[in-house]
Write a structure and sequence with these properties.
five-stranded antiparallel sheet; Peptidoglycan synthesis regulatory factor (PBP3), Domain 2; globular; alpha+beta; 2 domains; single chain
């Protein structure tokens, strides 16, 4: 494990004293609907002998517009639509992530398995410890139900059963998890199990935010992590009710997932997503010594309060020109861009960066550079720049303009036809 991976010890008495509250006592969000009716939920399932945290209230700073100070060792706040980072604290440090690992497990499973397919629990799955659903050897359960157990109750037996269903062995499944991480460009991430209980895997806040964004694009994943309770049939006796350990679903308006985690080495971890006024933010909190829900809510408040959306570039907007073999080529934005900007920040700055090696002729719509948008002197986004019109080898401007409508072309042809017939008469 890289040297940057932390190994924190926790006093069991402190954790037990602060984390024993039951989720059943959580109040509804003010002005929102009460929790979905459900049978009396089971007590929080222990993770390595320690109950999962279920606070009944959030404690966040009164001035949400100020840059927050949080106790988490590593953290990031990111806008899900644009990928813009609004807050970072050691955002690329590799750290153990405990059961947050299960985000990748669910992501891989949903992409490769039919949710209605039935999975048979192996002896290895049934032997898992810590937080478990209670699968028995030979018990059959649907992929969908196992995913709910995985993401709501953080069931380690569900993680192994799903991994074996996809790849036959957990070792092969872990290799698949790591190939998927590389394909997503997660350079600071490595998995060692489908559950994260081993603490040999690691990731970084920025990588987890990127993984969450990819997973949230899967409708089944997004639906599962927003769910408070789910009922799973048992082979014998009453059905099992799993409850979501993400207390923000009860306490934070607009909360929409995603996953909690805790081990002694990793500390309290949380990936939280919230939606408000058409915006979606993701907060990643790792290694929090106290309450990750407070830290995540503080970051989310900051994102929703301190920033406003602006559109520094619109599709087709003129952005200057690029010199190609001594000839100017007008450039326009290939697409628009929306950024979140601090309420007291200055206006975004735009800079046109030409592509190297451009030669005439230039076609209309051809890529000729990029438009770099900066906030406070730091790059905040990039949009491709394309040629507004064509330029031939002699430097003459010609060809249809970018964004030109078909009717415009028809009228131009008719104009030339009329001129060729009547010539000197017009």
């Amino acid at each position: 494990m890289p040297g940057a991976v932390r190994n924190r010890s926790r006093l069991a008495s402190f954790v037990l004293a602060s984390l024993v509250l039951s989720l059943e006592a959580l109040p509804a969000v003010a002005g929102g609907p009460p929790p979905s009716p459900a049978p009396s939920p089971p007590p929080p399932t222990p993770i390595q002998g320690t109950p999962s945290p279920f606070p009944t209230a959030l404690h966040t700073p009164g001035r949400a517009s100020r840059v927050p100070r949080i106790g988490a060792a590593e953290a990031v706040l990111e806008d899900e639509e644009t990928g813009q980072v609004l807050f970072r604290k050691h955002a690329t440090v590799r750290a153990p992530i405990a059961s947050v690992t299960k985000i990748m497990t669910a992501f891989v499973v949903i992409q490769r398995m039919d949710p209605s397919r039935s999975v048979t629990a192996s002896a290895r799955a049934a032997a898992q410890t810590g937080s478990v659903l209670g699968l028995r050897v030979g018990e059959r359960a649907s992929v969908r139900d196992l995913l709910f157990a995985l993401m709501l109750q953080s069931s380690n037996d569900a993680a192994v059963a799903l991994g074996e269903a996809v790849s036959r062995t957990t070792a092969r499944f872990v290799r698949l998890m790591n190939r998927t991480a590389r394909a997503l460009g997660l350079a600071d991430t490595r998995f060692a199990s489908p559950s994260g209980l081993d603490d040999r895997g690691y990731s970084s806040p920025l990588d987890l935010a990127a993984l969450t964004l990819a997973a949230e694009r899967l409708p089944l994943f997004a639906r599962i992590v927003r769910t408070r309770f789910h009922t799973i049939p048992a082979p014998h006796g009453p059905a099992r009710v799993v409850q979501n350990r993400n207390a923000l679903l009860w306490l934070y308006p607009g909360a929409a997932g995603v996953k909690t985690g805790f081990t002694t080495a990793a500390g309290n971890c949380l990936v939280a997503v919230a939606e408000r006024d058409g915006r979606s933010l993701a907060a990643v909190v790792l290694g929090d010594p106290r309450d990750p829900f407070d830290s995540a809510a503080t970051l989310l408040n900051y994102g929703f309060t301190a920033f406003v959306p602006v559109t520094p570039i619109r599709q087709g907007q003129p952005i200057g020109d690029v010199t190609v073999e001594g000839r100017p080529v007008d450039a326009v934005a290939a697409s628009g861009l929306v950024l979140l900007v601090g309420r007291k920040a200055g206006a975004p700055a735009l800079r046109l960066v030409p592509l190297s090696g451009l030669r005439l002729p230039i076609r209309p719509g051809q890529d000729i550079g990029s438009i770099v948008v900066s906030l406070g002197g730091k790059p905040a986004g990039t949009v491709a720049a394309v040629a507004a019109t064509g330029v031939d080898v002699r430097g003459r401007v010609g060809g249809a303009s970018v964004g030109r409508q078909p009717l415009d072309d028809v009228l131009e042809v008719l104009r030339l036809l009329v001129r060729s017939i009547y010539g000197s008469f017009i």
